[in-house]
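Now for a specimen:

…
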Amino acid sequence: MNLRKGTKNKVAGARQAVREARRIVVKVGSSSLTTATGGLDADRVDALVDVLAKIRSGGEREIVLVSSGAIAAGLAPLGLRRRPKDLARQQAAASVGQGLLVARYTASFARYGVRVGQILLTSDDMSRRAHHRNASRTLDKLLAMGAFPVVNENDTVATDEIRFGDNDRLAALVAHLVHADLLVLLSDIDGVYDGNPSKPGTSRIAEVREPADLDGIEIGSAGKAGVGTGGMVTKVEAARIAAAAGIPVVLTDTVHAADALSGGDTGTYFHATGKRSADRLLWLQHASTPQGSLTLDDGAVRAVVERRTSLLPAGIAAVEGDFSAGDPVELRDGSGRAVARGLVNFDAKEIPQLLGRSTRELARELGAEYEREVVHRDDLVILHP
């Protein structure tokens, strides 16, 4: 897109937050690290590491890398011509590829005397309080000790999470977890366009100030290389999650990584649109998979949604699903609409005997351990206010 001088100045001013960012999360897609047939491309990895090592060399900026590529890297060594569709072979490819991926990063960063620390996450790790706290502490300590954290989803054991959006959404949530000042999404796509970029007359959208700026624009669903699972849809969704959590985002091609990190006019810049919330609740809202549901009466819906109270047994009308204490569940109103999501304190088989009863009554009959919330307000996120 050809920008007039005034527009260029406006874009430069808007990206001041990029130049001032001190803690940055960078996400790179499979297509930027591997060949189309699978297997790591050492030259591509080294080129990315060259940029990241230079950015952090002054000691004023910290970077966390969220890297896809484990499954793609494992294809060729296992004799697979293309990304398998079945979960078992995806997990096998991830098991082989993850070791190759972190070994390649370790060797590449070693050229700069930088040690690499690997962090493998699943959404379950991050929605549970203790696991979330441990992940946050480990990442902070790695950065404090001068190591370079490389984060990936634990695809060898993930199930639904393995289709999580090619790590785009994971990157947005990690950015919030580490209190990043900036998220940079790198792939083989150089930004959001107002139409099909392969057709004449379309232009790159330099800035997105609010979600409405993309209304009416058809967002493509796939990258060019075909070795990952994400596309522009997942990238835009990740950008929206991060922006709503108070983190600006740059979405661009990996070849423009240096420009993106220095505040240059590349890709699409998403302005922060919201404020930071509790880290774990963002994961609960955007990364967890509900294992069941609780239907609330009208009074409980008002108490949970409007007054932001805990959910007590007296307000529950029905229970569905097979879940254990600590699992995420949906809280639904009488029409079946999910109004909230939370971590439940009881197993599914325990809840029927609690329905509609006060905690005091339950404590007298069943014991003091039943005088508690079914979902505590600290473990609850509102979906529809």
The chain has two domains: 5-283, 290-382. The chain has a mean pLDDT of 86. Residues 163 and 305 are 30 Å apart (CA to CA). The longest strand covers residues 23-28.
